[in-house]
Each structure stands twice: as C-alpha cells, then as structure tokens.
Design a protein that fits this description.
Blueprint (H helix, E strand, L loop, with lengths): L2 E7 L6 E7 L5 E6 L2 H7 L5 E5 L4 H8 L25 E7 L2 E6 L5 E6 L3 H5 L5 E5 L3 E6 L16 E7 L10 H4 L11 E3 L8 E2 L27 E5 L6 E5 H13 L15 E6 L2 H7 L4 E7 L3 E3 L11 H9 L13 E7 L2 E6 L5 E6 L5 E5 L15 E3 L17 H17 L6 H30 L1
Parallel strand pairs: 3-10, 10-11, 15-22
Antiparallel strand pairs: 1-2, 1-9, 3-4, 4-8, 5-6, 6-7, 7-8, 11-12, 13-14, 14-17, 15-16, 16-21, 18-19, 19-20, 20-21
This protein binds zinc ion (3 copies).
The site of one zinc ion has 10 residues, from loops.
Length: about 475
C-alpha cells in the first residue's frame, strides 16, 4: 500500500516534523475556527485551520519543552522580544486556559495547537493533544514496499474539513462564502456552525449566513467618518500589536487625488477609494499564516498610526518601519511598537508578525516602501470581519498565486473556491474587481476587433 509523507514545517524551515501515514488513513479530519480569538492570533480572516497531527507527540514536546501546568496569565508565553535572526525556538503562546499555540519564534509560522479537554485536565498533568495548523502541512506520495501504484498527490485528499465553527463571531460571515467548497469538487461540504460544533445553530448547506441583503453595500465606506470613527483598529490576540488603519482619511485623500487628476495608488478602488482585498494562495503566505488562502488588504504606511491617545510618530514608509523595529529594545525602540517583529523571507522582504502571540501583521518589500499588505484577520471593523467599509474585495477573481497550489494536494480546492466566491459575488450584486473588469473589457474589444477583421477578409475574398 502507498504511503503519504506528511511534513509540518515553518516558513524559515527551522522546524520540520515529518511523519508517513498509510494512504488508507487519510484524509485527516480538519476544522476551521472563525472565532475572533483565532483571527487575532493568526492574522488570517479564516481564523485557524487545524487537523489532529498523526505523528508522535514526543517529537513536538522535545522541541517545545514540557507544557507548563499552572494557569498563570503570561507565564507560558514567548517573551516577544525582537527575535528575527538567532532565536528560532518553537515558542508557546497561551491562547486560552486550555489551548496553547506553538509557533516558530523566528518566522512566526504557527505549527501546532497544544490542547486539553479543559483547564483542569491541563493542571492535573494530563497529556496534551496536538493539532497541526493545516497551512503548515505539505504532503508527498511515496511508493509502498510492494511497488503498489502511487496515486498522483493531486488526487489525495490529505485533509477533509469537517466543519467551520464560530462563524457567528465574524458578524458578516468572514471567509466562509468562499470556503464552503474547501474540500474540492465532489467532496462533502464542511458543516457550518455559528458557535461550537453540535452546540450552536447550524447553517444548512446552500443557506447564506448572513443573508446577502444584510451585508454592507459595496459603496459603504468611511469617507464621511471623521477622527477615530474613520479608524479601523489593527490588533493581535495578546495586545502587543495595537495600531490603527486611518481608512476614513485614506478614502478622503484618494478621492481628492482623483479629483485633482492625479493617479491613484494601484490598490485604491477608483469608485469607493477603499483598498483592495485579495484571496492569496501563495505558499509563503500559507505557511506564515497557518491556513490556505490568506487575505491581505493594502494601505499606505502613512495611513497607519499607533492606537491610543498618542498616535503620532509612526514611520512614513517600510524602510523607516524596519529601522524602528530593529532598534534595540528599551534603548531607542519606541515602546508603542510593542511585540512587533519581522522575518526576512528574502533580503528585500519583511514579514511582520507578533513575537509574542505569532499573529501575521504586514508584508513589506523595499521596492515599494510606501505601502504594506495588511493581514485582514487583525482588523476590527464595526461592520464585520471582512471590514468591507475599509476594503474593496476582489471577490471571484482568480486566487492570487493560484499556481502555487496546482500540482499539490490542494489543487482540488482552487476551482471550487473560485466558483463559490464568484457565485456569491453575483448573488449579492457586488461589482467585479475593477482591474478584472478592465481586463475583461479589453479582451472583449480585442476579440470583437479580430472577429470584424476576419468577417471583412472573408467578405473581400468572397467578392473576388
Ligand atoms: Zn521558522
Ligand atoms: Zn477559534
Ligand atoms: Zn500578539
């Protein structure tokens, strides 16, 4: 019988856990938790996605150390210090009294949930169970001993998601509309629960939650919202990241820019002036955030501030941000940068995250230092988890970097997710992403021109 090699690994490859399982034991049972805690600890709009890790747990404990048994507030946690280079420990963050997150302190990748039935079980010394963040999971098919046929990895369902839980926390459905087909074409759809599984309201297959009529309209924005009312908090689970996106100000500024005949930044919607929101399938983002299909929106660095009464002094661009975050703790580093740290996945790229709770914050690149990608999971907008008053979503457009999933066990989800997102976009009457609309219009005009020329040629040759 063939086996499948499962590998849980972080973005910087400091941590790799490998385990082979017989093909017949797959798929692993997966779950997506859309709760606010999970969104704020990962930075993913989807929250968390995990499955029971079938490998030996002793390997994990050996690297992370024995879990503490007390119930103190912060005692389990990583110190959150700047740890970009040297420190690649498998850090522990106390997510709740019965759940810890284990993540790579160097790159921020969440690798495992360490969990107990309840806090009492943890205190009494019961063994923890370990669930792997499915975004950190890679898989390859290996030949069995008797040379059995090896199925292509694209046909192997490594994880089958059984449910989406705590969707009610999102208020607007969060990432659910495009994740109902996450198991791929022809596979059972995950169940949807507004709260915990089997103990909250279930949303039946084919039913929208919330109803499309209840959602914010495409035009709704923060242009008219003055002061703090136009700000969207950017917060991680531990509170060590506490910033705001000054979305109202950005929208007013972009409108004025357009009226003065100047070009808008590429990510600014020319109708609503909101930043575009994307569905990203790239491997690095998947690893960084712990689940498939990360969601970014975009902002100019100058539209980001510290939260609280003293908002001033946030860097003007990502070069300034990097220098400020690099400053040694306690000496010149502004304490308002809190637990912000970063990992350079390549020399000109910084992936910012929370060094204490692991939440993904920004993606920054030196060649476009005026802007950052912002992890949507950290936004606390009043209208819901998708923050539609601040984000103009490219619903139904091809998944960004979809090619990274082609040829892997995730291939089956690509078309199902794109199709679901497009159906939902049309149902709610949300316009196409303006760049996609422009591209399709150009292609249509091109086709019409070609057809016309062909018809004229045929007419001419017929006349001869
Ligand atoms: Zn790492
Ligand atoms: Zn959760
Ligand atoms: Zn944090």
């Amino acid at each position: 019988m063939s086996t499948v090699i499962l590998k849980a690994e972080c973005l910087c490859r400091a941590h790799t856990f490998t385990h082979s399982v017989p093909l017949s034991t797959l798929p692993l049972r997966g779950s997506s938790c859309h709760c606010t805690s999970c969104r704020h600890v990962t930075g993913a709009l989807r929250g968390s996605a995990d499955a029971v890790w079938p490998g030996p747990t002793a390997d994990i404990v050996r690297v992370a150390g024995e879990p503490p048994r007390h119930d103190g507030d912060d005692a389990d946690n990583n110190d959150g210090e700047k740890n970009n280079e040297g420190n690649a420990k498998l850090a522990r963050y106390r997510h709740s009294p019965r759940v810890n997150v284990l993540f790579c302190a160097r790159c921020g990748t969440e690798l495992f949930f360490e969990e107990w039935e309840n806090a009492e079980a943890k205190k009494s010394g019961a063994e923890a169970a370990y669930a792997v963040f499915t975004g950190a999971l890679n898989a390859a098919a290996a030949e069995g001993p008797e040379g059995a046929d090896v199925p292509p990895i694209t046909s192997v369902q490594v994880v089958q998601y059984a449910d989406h839980i705590f969707v009610g926390d999102t208020r607007d459905g969060g990432a659910l509309p495009w994740l109902r087909g996450i198991n791929g074409e022809g596979q059972p759809a995950p169940k949807v629960w507004l709260g915990g599984r089997n103990r909250s309201e279930e949303v039946a297959e084919g039913v929208r939650w919330p109803a499309v009529e209840a959602l914010a309209k495409f035009e709704d924005g923060l242009k008219g919202a003055e002061g703090d009312a136009g700000n969207v908090p950017i917060r991680c689970h531990c509170g060590g990241i506490d910033l705001v996106l000054r979305a109202g100000e950005a929208q007013r500024e972009f409108e004025a820019l357009q009226k003065s005949g100047k070009e808008l930044p590429w990510f600014a919607d020319p109708v609503t002036y909101k930043g575009v929101g994307s569905v990203d399938g790239c491997d690095s983002c998947r690893l960084a955030v712990g689940s498939e299909l990360h969601n970014w929106t975009f902002a100019l660095v100058k539209h980001i501030s510290f939260a609280g009464a003293d908002q001033g002094g946030f860097p003007e661009d990502t070069l300034g941000l990097r220098a400020a975050v690099d400053a040694a703790d306690g000496t010149t580093r502004d304490p308002r940068f809190g637990t912000i740290t970063y990992y350079s996945s390549s020399p000109e790229v910084q992936r910012y995250f929370c060094g204490r709770c692991s939440a993904v914050l920004f993606y920054a690149a030196d060649d476009r230092s005026e802007l950052v990608d912002v992890a949507v999971g950290l936004l606390d907008a009043p209208d819901g988890a998708r923050a539609e008053t601040a984000v103009s979503w490219a619903f139904g457009s091809p998944i960004v970097y979809r090619q990274d999933m082609i040829g892997t066990w995730r291939e089956a989800l690509v078309t199902a997710v794109e199709r679901d997102a497009e159906a939902w976009r049309i149902e709610r009457g949300y316009p196409k992403f303006w760049r996609r609309a422009a591209k399709e219009a150009a292609e249509k005009a091109e086709q019409e021109k070609a057809d016309k020329e062909k018809a004229e040629k045929e007419k001419a040759s017929g006349a001869n």
